[in-house]
């Protein structure tokens, strides 16, 4: 099923990362710049992420002896510096996730550059370091993103969906590692139900979501792939869903041969495998179509 398998560390069969996008109330301010502060119910449900679920996740992962990657917008670092401190104290990785969760696809190249740079300043101020990785808010990886990520020394992205194992994104300025995700491992379609944000999905039982996640994991375990959960603290940080995550981890551990890693560790592993010649990645030159593909008038 998977050609050109990447050899995982310690002969593991597959790699697993539960990644968390800590959007918090950035998305509400972005959607309703004038009214967000008056939408208290929705705001409280989004603040549950940094205030309640991340402290809980830190304890749960400590007990499980696991570290994860949390993507945090710069604005959220400014608003929740205590949550950033907590994540760092527990040894988790923090990745770049825009400034206030703006969609890069809707920005000019200049604004996208400014947003990247402004958030890197937040990293300097609140973490004292430079992030290895980036996930585009709302998967909005633009035609300019790769060149800008290379310019700012970002080593990997995890927003695209072009393979089952890591691959390399290349442009004239350089390259980065892509650690792909897919919507079937995203919690949004199962749990996001919020009229103020215009998403009212039918809510899944944790067991039904688990079925979808584990179908992917079991296939990746069978064929040597990668499973990357894309979860949100305000959704999956609720108690029954954390219980479901713990059950998933027990299932994965029982199967055995699973490399649990942060995305930064996966990116380092990929770079090392490329540089020592033990593996050659598939390379995607992006953007695929820098210009529109041409006249489609014949369709009218
Ligand atoms: Zn996000």
Description:
The chain has 300 residues and is α/β, with parallel strands linked by helices. It has a single domain (12-31, 39-288), classed as Glycoside hydrolase/deacetylase (TIM Barrel). It has helices at 26-31, 40-64, 74-79, 81-89, 109-126, 145-151, 188-191, 206-223, 233-236, 239-255, 263-275; strands at residues 14-21, 69-72, 93-96, 133-134, 156-157, 167-171, 174-178, 193-194, 199-200, 226-231, 258-260, 283-285. Strands 1, 2, 3, 10 and 11 form a five-stranded parallel β-sheet that branches. Zinc ion (ZN) binds next to loops. Zinc ion (ZN) is lined by residues 21, 23, 97, 101, 137.
Name a few traits of the molecule.
300 residues; alpha/beta; TIM Barrel; five-stranded parallel sheet; five-stranded mixed sheet; 11 helices; 12 strands; binds zinc ion
Any idea what the CATH superfamily is called?
Glycoside hydrolase/deacetylase
Q: How many structural units, i.e. domains?
A: 1
Shape annotation: globular
Q: What is the helix/strand order?
A: EHHEHHEHEHEEEHEEHEHHEHE
Number of strands: 12
Name the structural class.
Answer: alpha/beta
Specify Rg, calculated over alpha carbons.
19 Å
What is the average of the pLDDT values? 97
CATH topology: TIM Barrel
Helix-residue proportion: 40-55%
Span of the ends, CA to CA: 40 Å
Number of helices: 11
The low-pLDDT segments are none
CATH hierarchy, class: Alpha Beta
Into which percentage range does the β-strand content fall?
15-25%
Described by its quaternary structure, the protein is single chain
> Which kinds of small molecule does this entry bind, naming each only once?
zinc ion
